[in-house]
């Protein structure tokens, strides 16, 4: 497996080099709006400690991250009156991983509404900010 790259986009977000619309953070992880959401309320949860993915992550880091994933899942379900919540996590290119910092997608789902493709089209910042505020209120 390739080594962890400290210059990946999520590492830069953690260092504050790239802006993000954060909805939650603690000493273990941060949660922020996906800029190319597959549904309104699509959040990414990343641990503060760097690892490429689940295959090389410290088990304690995973344990702490999944607690945040659960907290965010409950909040997005409430904030968007969702029927369910889709949680996804990819490992290595063959699985669809494109950013090589361990991360979890948390996406509210509504019955019969398909996910949008994770395209190169970025969501309007004001929409992301408004969606983030809904989630923060549900936390």
Task: Supply Rg.
Answer: 14 Å
Major pleated sheet: 5 strands, antiparallel
Number of domains: 1
The CATH superfamily appears as HIT-like
Q: Averaging pLDDT over every residue, what do you get?
A: 97
Q: Briefly note the structural class of the backbone.
A: alpha+beta
Q: In angstroms, what separates the terminal alpha carbons?
A: 37 Å
Supply the CATH class: Alpha Beta
Shape: globular
What does this structure look like?
The protein has 139 residues and is of the alpha+beta class. The chain has a single domain (9-138), classed as 2-Layer Sandwich (HIT family, subunit A), CATH 3.30.428.10. The protein is built from three helices and five strands; from the N terminus they run αβββαββα. It has helices at 9-14, 59-79, 125-138, and strands at 22-25, 29-33, 43-47, 84-88, 104-109. Strands 1-2-3-5-4 form a five-stranded antiparallel β-sheet. β1 (22-25) and β2 form a beta hairpin. α2 crosses α3 (125-138). It is globular, with a radius of gyration of 14 Å. The termini are far apart.
Secondary-structure map:
Layout: H1 9-14, E1 22-25, E2 29-33, E3 43-47, H2 59-79, E4 84-88, E5 104-109, H3 125-138
Antiparallel strand pairs: 1-2, 2-3, 3-5, 4-5
Helix pairs in contact: 2-3
Short précis:
The chain has 139 residues and is α+β, with helices and mostly antiparallel strands. 29% of the residues lie in helices and 18% in strands.
């Amino acid at each position: 497996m390739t080594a962890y790259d400290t210059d990946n986009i999520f590492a830069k977000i953690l260092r504050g080099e790239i802006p993000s619309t954060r909805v939650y953070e603690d000493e273990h992880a941060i949660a922020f709006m996906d800029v190319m959401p597959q549904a309104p309320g699509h959040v990414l949860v990343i641990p503060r400690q760097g690892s490429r993915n689940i295959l090389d992550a410290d088990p304690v880091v995973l344990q702490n991250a999944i607690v945040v994933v659960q907290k965010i899942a409950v909040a997005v379900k409430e904030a968007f009156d969702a029927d369910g919540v889709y949680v996804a996590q990819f490992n290595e290119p063959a699985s669809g991983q494109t950013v090589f910092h361990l991360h979890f997608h948390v996406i509210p789902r509504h019955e019969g509404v398909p996910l949008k493709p994770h395209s190169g089209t970025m969501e309007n910042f004001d929409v992301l900010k408004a969606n983030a505020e809904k989630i923060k209120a549900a936390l």
